[in-house]
Specification:
3-stranded antiparallel β-sheet, single chain, 167 residues, 24% strand, alpha+beta
Length: 167
Amino acid sequence: MACSRRIFFRLIGAASLAGGTLAWRTAGAADSNATTSYEVTHSDADWHKLLTDAQYTVLREAGTERPFSSPLNNEHRVGTFACAGCKLPLFSSNTKFDSGTGWPSFWQPLDHAVITHTDKSFGMTRNEVLCRRCGSHLGHVFDDGPKPTGLRYCMNGLALSFTPSAA
């Protein structure tokens, strides 16, 4: 019985810590986009209707999916990756590469598709990537990618949809 109580309290403590971290990250994301207006906007309730719970967590609360969990990580057909929130085309399959990180990665977005924002969550500074049209969180961009840009746009698969090119 004592062992079960100990495990129970450890789980409660871990859940509290995780919830606090998510709330802290979400508040930071909401604050960063508060002054930016986007072409596509929806109420919170409408975003919930348009997206799955997992997509909502990533796109609207700046969450991150588990690595190697997205089928798009292994998508190798020719086509276009678009925002799962507003369908804006974001990346060509021609710029996709296997970064080994477990998330779909690209070395360059399409012109005028994304914007970046400084993200100082979790005690580090990163460049967050957002959809230019709806402000949805897509992932982060790092400077350890392949030529020709040297960039790695590390995207959440849940933030993207894929449309293969017509043959």
